[in-house]
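User: 4-deoxy-L-threo-5-hexosulose-uronate ketol-isomerase. Structure?
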Amino acid sequence: MEQRYATSPEQIPGMDTAELRHRYLVPGLFVDDEANAVYTHHDRVVLLGAKPVTGPVALPTFPEIRSEYFFEHREGGIVNVGGTGTVAVDGTSYELTHGSCLYVGRGARDVTFTSADAASPARFYLVSAPAHTAYPTTLVAAGQGNVRELGDPLTSNRRTLNQYIHENGVRSCQVVMGVTTLHPGSMWNTMPAHTHDRRTEAYLYFDVPEDARIVHLLGRPDETRHLVVGNEEAVISPSWSVHSGVGTASYSFVWAMAGENQSFDDMDGFPITDMR
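Assistant: Predicted structure:
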């Protein structure tokens, strides 16, 4: 488990590209037959990728979280961004097709990831946060959450947003999670850009063509920087950072938050004309 310590907006002006990528970009989560994790001290969120190919991959108990098992004091949302696979939670199996989401509640002991076809392996993306109440493990099939159509083709941000884990959907303590898919010809994932001063958010970009990239904006609205992001790479957005991006082709992304509240609309928008 890699540790990422918390940063402040005052550090941004002094960071070069290499340090920005080291602090906020999370590449290489999906490695054959491994579970790889990054622990960010922003709201103590864990990002994890599991890619079972030749056999099942068990969710490890990382010493950094000081627990007997991973979900002893945590909860998490899992989205499959690869081929069809199965997540077994304490003996119950849940099939996740591409884009489906599974919420795993506090207290789950044994979690195992399996692909249905080694030629097209599943890639499970887990976002976890501390939890103080146990909610039931719940599966939501792709496209079966609260679906919202947002944006306009005239501003190149027509998109379909699926809310899976949220205050009016699958219950959780802190984690809020969903998937947004850009329509063909649209490339901005959100505009105006915004912050959540009460929550950390992470984006995992997926279904990005091999020859395409996302230009992801981060930093304070008056002191922005950018990251060039490829397929199945994640970006950590502290509460003070904007998070918005534009791609060279259409794509999807998993958005996940944890922090003070679960209100999807608790955000502070910044018109592009006010950003620097």
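The chain has one domain: 17-274. The longest helix spans residues 17-24.
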